[in-house]
Design a protein that fits this description.
Blueprint lengths: L3 E4 L5 H12 L3 E6 L11 E5 L5 H10 L6 E6 L13 H22 L4 E10 L12 H20 L4 E8 L10 H9 L10 H12 L7 E4 L16
Parallel strand pairs: 1-2, 1-4, 2-3, 4-5, 5-6, 6-7
Length: 237
């Protein structure tokens, strides 16, 4: 029987690449998405919609998951990334980030408490900002730090049943709205100095899902940015 994986935020960008990769590897993929789902239909694909910034949507998603069968892996990839300056309501701004990055993974993990297959693995996508925050994105940074700490706690709680690890991506894949000046500035703060692409995260996930001796680990996939000279927080957005 093929393995089953849940990937949150799988409708586009990195999550879509991850979903397509595991479908190609023969996995049964449960792909969560919010508003956009760019995944093509596939016999091994189950798509589930939920707004992870909404508590009721999170609760309903958590209720659905155990009925889909036992899971061999979960990748908590869903994210929101909004600068503090764009927030008109500071409470709502922080609550949105906390729900997407902390509450949703917590409720999903609880919902799957009796639905893990032997040798299961969980990967949480944090950020280098969890350790070296950017004052322009304090709500995001705080939420990603919370996700990281939650994952380490789950590595303890689920020990012997589920291996739990963290990936801290750096600027792996630029978006169309990132101008050339931004790209050059960011790459100048990386030891590798190259845009590594989503494949770098896919390969890191592959490793962690099969590394039987690895749990409670924070893996940085950032081109060496964490140990390069500390970045300037004032360049163009």
């Amino acid at each position: 029987m093929s393995k089953r994986i849940l990937i949150t935020g799988a409708g586009r960008r990195l999550g879509k690449v991850l979903a397509e990769h595991y479908l190609a590897q023969g996995w049964q993929v449960v792909a969560h998405y919010n508003s956009a789902n760019e995944l093509a239909d596939h016999a091994a694909l189950t798509s589930v919609r939920a707004n992870l910034a909404d508590r009721e949507d999170i609760r309903q998603l958590a209720l659905k998951l155990p009925a889909l069968g036992n899971f061999d892996a979960v990748i908590h990839n869903a994210s929101c990334f909004v600068p503090d300056a764009a927030a008109s309501d500071l409470i709502a701004h922080h609550e949105m980030h906390q729900r997407v990055h902390v509450l949703a993974p917590a409720l999903i993990t609880e919902a799957l408490s009796s639905a893990w297959n032997p040798g299961a693995s969980m990967v949480c996508l944090s950020d280098i900002y969890a350790d070296i925050p950017n004052q322009r994105f304090s709500a995001y940074c705080a939420a990603k730090a919370g996700l990281q700490n939650f994952a380490l706690s789950m590595a303890q709680r689920l020990a012997g049943r589920v291996r739990v690890n963290i990936i801290q991506p750096g600027p792996i894949q630029f978006l169309p709205e990132h101008d050339e000046a931004y790209r050059k500035k960011v790459l100048s703060q990386s030891l590798i100095g190259e845009e590594l692409g989503y494949g770098a995260i896919v390969r890191a996930c592959d490793y962690l899902l099969q590394a039987e001796a690895v749990t409670g680990t924070v893996m940085r996939v950032d081109g060496g940015r964490f140990v390069a000279n500390r970045y300037d927080q004032t360049f163009s957005s």
